[in-house]
Amino acid sequence: MKKSRLDYCFLTCSKAAIISIILIAIIASVSCSSALYTPSESQQTASASLAQLQEGRKLYVQKCGSCHTLYLPEKYTKLQWQQFLNEMQQKASIDNLEKEQILKYVSKGL
């Protein structure tokens, strides 16, 4: 069966729309990750070393940013972040150590 011009346009437009959506999501994720704070020595706490904060940031960008837009850490409290991470742990394939490192990063070591 021969496809009409309308069918061809619909398929072409759909592919273009999907590609556009994917590109927008990638750009949004990358632009937000650059707005995230980068841990420094002055941000170390008794419960979070610089290495843990840095690893937490890396995991946050990789694990959380692979599915949705990243939120700035200061947008939520430590308790709220804890609840989000508990809810998302299985979906994001995050083990307990990774969850703790992400929590340390987003709560700024508190």
Notes on the structure:
By secondary structure, the chain is mostly helical. It has one domain (5-106). The chain has four helices and no strands. Helix 2 packs across helix 4 and helix 3 (78-88) runs antiparallel to helix 4. The chain is elongated. 16% of the residues are buried.
Largest sheet: none
Sheet-strand content, in percent, reads under 5%
How many individual domains? 1
Look at the helices and sheets and give the structural class: mainly alpha
How far is it from the N-terminal to the C-terminal residue, by CA? 65 Å
Q: What does the radius of gyration come to? A: 19 Å
Question: Which overall shape is indicated by the principal axes computed on the Cα atoms?
Answer: elongated
Average predicted local confidence, pLDDT = 83
Count the strands?
Answer: 0
H/E element string? HHHH
Low-confidence segments, given as residue ranges, are: none
SS summary, helix count = 4
Helix content: 55-70%
